[in-house]
Amino acid sequence: MHDMNDAAVLADVFPLGSRRDARGTLALGGVPVDELAETYGTPLYVYDEATIRAQCRAFVQPLARAYPNSLALYAAKAHVDPTVAAVVTSEGLGIDAVSSGEIRTALAGGAAAERIVLHGNNKLPREIEYALDAGVGRIIVDSLDELALVEDLAAARARPAPVMLRITPGVEAHTHDYIRTGAVDSKFGLPLASGAAEAAVERAQRSPALDLTGLHAHVGSQVFELAPYADALGIVLDFADDMRQRHGLRLRDVSPGGGFGVRYDPGDDPPAAAAFVAVIAETLLARGLDPAPRLLIEPGRSIIARAGTALYRVGVIKEIPGVRTYVSVDGGMADNIRPALYGARYRALLANRAPQGPQRAVTVAGRYCESGDVLLRDAELPELRRGDLLAVPAAGAYHMAMASTYNLVGRPATVMVRGGAARLTRRRETDEDLLAAFCVG
Ligand code: LLP
Asked: Tell me, what's the pLDDT at 3?
């Protein structure tokens, strides 16, 4: 029983090519996890380069075939550093950034400025100025207020700001409330119904400081359905047609955003990348637009989630007879807030040795001072002892990206593995690093 469990999680949720070596030790990208833990310490986030590349290709190849005038943008908010930016850039993706920090990191990884877009519901004036001066490809304007701000900042510069407008299509995707963004009651985007979206088109069309290139919509994140993409894009295209007639809009770019769902458990069954691409391309092609706009998509989680594995070291094991056994590890909610914030469920495998004997349900808790700091509830695991390594797969997206220094614990290191070798991509934050930020006296 436990072997099948182990095998399914290894084959379907861990990075491509993950396997147990002759000792029974998990190897990621050909590197045994005990070596990784020894060299870099734990908790450790291990990224497998081949899996990132495979996921990039899973989107780029069908997109290039179905709709050549297109660009896939990696949503850097899911997880980015210069190494990841360089890998996705070399696979032909651009970058969807939401801050000057993400733009700088993308540039540091070699991304071309014109293949970067800037999103956000409250971009700071200095971030907009930075983006304009860096020459990013598009600023995705989120509100009327922001349109006026971008217009002002662009008016003081030589060239008009290339902008797209983010429309709230009123399409609900079935995902967690906190990560659903396409509905009318959302802090994101220009609602169609209130007339805000049309007012923005009208203003942008009239402004010499703005070059309105197109429209954007995003339905949510960790979406397992195809229909919301067709629906949202259909609404955007109807609106674009209306705006062409009323305000002379030339639709040169269009985007249905990102949000493509991924597997956290062998039982999850999200559509393939190619299926998301197909429904989007078909919806657009069915309109027979002439000239046809460029299509932009923004996958984040679906590029990076599977590539990342969290490695934790087991510490205290507390058995409460007849109640529950808590297995505490050296990380927790500060490096993975998703269970506490969204009720997200994960799998874990004993990673430093072959699982033996019967499994039983234990609760894997973090090290932070909060009862809600639980990573896995009722996880079926073999007998564990202090010093064992636990590996949590599908940890690549929105873990390190959302990490905090709660309890003044430094954030984990990250490494990238490829072909049996590992390299450090972010060093572990130390107590000294944290202390250095304080001003004393
Ligand atoms: N484009 C836009 C405009 C977005 O707002 C997002 C995500 C994406 C693309 C990328 O979505 P993805 O392909 O990664 O699902 N922290 C949450 C997810 C927040 C998503 C925010 N926006 C989580 O851990 O589930």
From this structure: 63
15 touches ligand 1 (CB under 6 Å): no
Measured N-to-C along each axis, helices 196-206 and 227-247 cross at an angle, to the nearest 10 degrees, of: 50
Pocket lining: 338 vs ligand 1, CB cutoff 6 Å: yes
What is the CA(44)–ligand 1 centre distance, in A? Answer: 23
Radius of gyration over every alpha carbon of the chain, rounded to an integer in angstroms? 23
Peptide bond into 412 cis (omega under 30): no
CA of 21 to the centre of ligand 1 (A): 35
Write down all domains in the chain, each with its CATH number in brackets.
4-41+307-436 (2.40.37.10), 50-300 (3.20.20.10)
Confidence at residue 5, expressed as pLDDT on a 0 to 100 scale: 77
Residue 393 Cβ inside 6 Å of ligand 1? The answer reads no
- For the question of whether the overall pTM of this predicted structure is more than 0.85, the answer is yes
Residue pair 328/317 in contact (Cβ under 8 Å)? The answer is yes
Cβ atoms of 176 and 242 closer than 8 Å: no
Pair type for strands 190-191 and 70-75:
unpaired
For residue 218, which atom of ligand 1 is closest to its CA? 3
CA 17 remoteness from chain centre: 22
One-letter amino acid for residue 264 of the chain? Y
CA–CA distance, 380 with 376 (Å, rounded to integer): 10
Q: Is 259 in the pocket of ligand 1 (CB under 6 A)?
A: yes
Among 277, 270, 228, 300, which residue's Cα sits nearest to residue 58? 277
* DSSP letter assigned to residue 400: G
Please provide residue 176's backbone torsions phi and psi, each rounded to the nearest 5 degrees.
-60, 140
Angle made by CA atoms 375, 334, 176, in degrees to the nearest 5: 60
Q: pLDDT (tens digit, 9 = 90+) per residue, 350-378?
A: 999 999 999 999 999 999 999 999 999 99
Nearest atom within ligand 1 for CA of residue 221? 15
Distance in angstroms (rounded) separating the CA atoms of residues 88 and 111: 9
Task: Give residue 175's pLDDT.
Answer: 59
CB 78 within 8 A of CB 304: yes
The finding on whether 78 has its CB within 6 A of some atom of ligand 1 is: yes
pLDDT digits (tens, 9 = 90+) for 121-157: 999 999 999 999 999 999 999 999 999 999 999 999 9
pLDDT (mean) for 7-14: 96
Of 1, 193, 369, 408, the catalytic one is 369
State yes or no: is 369 an active-site residue.
yes
